[in-house]
Structures are given as structure tokens and as C-alpha cells.
Amino acid sequence: MSKKVKKLKNRAIYSLLILTSTTTGFSGQMQRYLKGLEIWLNKWRLKITPHKCSFNIYRGNVPNLNELPNRTLTLFSEKIPVDKNPKYLGVTMDKSLNYSFHTNQIKTKCNKLLNILKCLSYKSWALDTEQQLVVYKALIRSCMEYAPPVLLQSKNNVEMLQIIQNKALRIIYKEHSRSSSEPLHKRANLETMKVRLETLEGKYWARCKDSGNELINSLNRNH
After folding, report:
1. Which of 51, 84, 117 is the last residue of a domain?
2. Alpha carbons 201 and 147: distance in angstroms, whole number
3. Domain for residue 201, yes or no?
4. What SS3 state is found at 88?
5. Residue 118: what are its φ and ψ, rounded to 5°?
6. pLDDT digits over 26-50, tens only?
7. Which of 12, 57, 125, 139 has its CA 20 to 30 A from that of 41?
8. Same domain, 59 and 101
9. What is the CA radius of gyration of the chain?
10. DSSP 76
11. 94-108 pLDDT, tens per residue?
12. Are residues 132 and 120 in contact, defined by beta-carbon separation less than 8 angstroms?
């Protein structure tokens, strides 16, 4: 097997979305697709590890995945595990599709990074406020800017991220934890996270429109 084929085998990501009104037909549809995938993989001498794959069902009136009939899927006679929170292109999915689980992961990561900002702010060799703002934008805010259309799905997500930005500004300007965040935003010349995410989302859809891809353009029109 060539090096290119081996590289493809190790890095390939397969994803499939099936829209169905009933869960009873889901297993059959998926299993037929997986059988076709096996044939295609064998044809091109590629390999995939079934236990490293996962599947989930997103449907509002299904109370529990474990209660679904015939929910077992197999690939090369090996069961594919169910993952309630799979990660796809850096975004962690959840059953409700409001991405609160993903936002909580960002919150945990950013709260840890705030400790770095505290060290840069309160030590004897502390950086000035402008330098700390640069660190905040590069190290912390950048984590909260990935996939804006996803984060804007829920008001709670945006509020959670705004709290992190408020904490960062209070650390930088050495303000009390209960001090108003509005004057700090003006002082730092920063927009709120809602405005920031909406701006980034607008730029994303503009780039999609310029791509000339008809499928993307149809999504853009619906958006």
C-alpha cells in the first residue's frame, strides 16, 4: 500500500446525516449505507476502525437512545458504539442541538486560561493593560470565536461567553467582581460577545455567498 493511501486511511473522516420521520427505519437505512461503504473501502484497499466510529440519533421526541429498537449498527461485523456527545470538526454535539455542552467545554477551558491572565496582571512584572488585552484576544477570546453560527443557537450560550469576557476585563483593569462591565467594554474598545459573534457570522455567510457554490448559496438564502 502506498504512503498516500496509508495517510488517507489514517486521516479520513466519514460522516453521514440521514433524515427520517421514524426511528424504525433508521437502522435499516444506516446499515445499507454501511454495507455499501464496506464495498467501497475494500475496492480502494482502505481500512476503517469501527470501534473508533460512533453514531447518534437527534430527534426531539425520543426520550432515551437505549429505548430505541434495533439501534445496533455494525461495520465489518463489528459494532459501532453510540456516542451521546460526538465531536465533529471541533464542535461537540448534544441531543438537544443547542450546543450547550460544547459551550460548557469552552467555558471550562477559558476559566483555566483566565488564571494566566491573573498572573500577567497582578505580578510585580505585570504587563500593561494594552498588552493584557492583546493576550486576552489571542489566548481566550479566540477560543470563544470558533463556529459563531453554532454558538448563536442559544441565548444562554452567548451569555455564558459574555460572563467570561466580563471576568477578563475586570482582571485586566483590576476592578471588583461586581463592577459594571459596560464602562470596561468602552474603556477596552471591545464589543460584547453577542455583537462579536454576529459580526463574525455575517462575514462567514458573506464568504459563503462569494464562493459560488449553489448548495451553500441555497443555505445562505434560507439563513
Report:
1. 84
2. 8
3. yes
4. strand
5. -60, -40
6. 678 888 999 999 999 999 999 888 9
7. 57
8. no
9. 23
10. T
11. 888 889 999 999 999
12. yes
Domain end point (choices 41, 61, 84): 84
Phi–psi pair at 91, nearest 5 degrees: -115, 125
Pairing of strands 78-80, 87-88: unpaired
Looking at this protein, which amino acid is placed at residue 32? Answer: R
72 and 139, same domain (yes or no): no
- From 105-114, 119-128, 135-144, 145-154, the region with the lowest mean pLDDT: 119-128
| Identity of residue 105 | Q
| Cell output for 18 | 440521514
Q: How confident is the model at residue 201 (pLDDT cuts 50, 70, 90)?
A: very high
Judging by beta carbons within 10 Å of its beta carbon (0-12, 13-18, 19+), is residue 220 exposed, middle or buried?
middle
Tell me what the mean pLDDT of segment 142-165 comes to. Answer: 95
Per the CB < 8 A criterion, the answer to whether 62 and 38 are in contact is no
Domain coverage including residue 72:
3-84
pTM attached to this predicted model: 0.77
Question: Could you tell me if residue 91 is inside a domain?
Answer: no
3-state secondary structure of 217: helix
| pLDDT > 70 fraction of the chain, expressed in percent and rounded | 80
pLDDT band at 25 (very low <50, low <70, confident <90, very high): low
Q: How many CB atoms lie within 10 A of CB 73?
A: 20
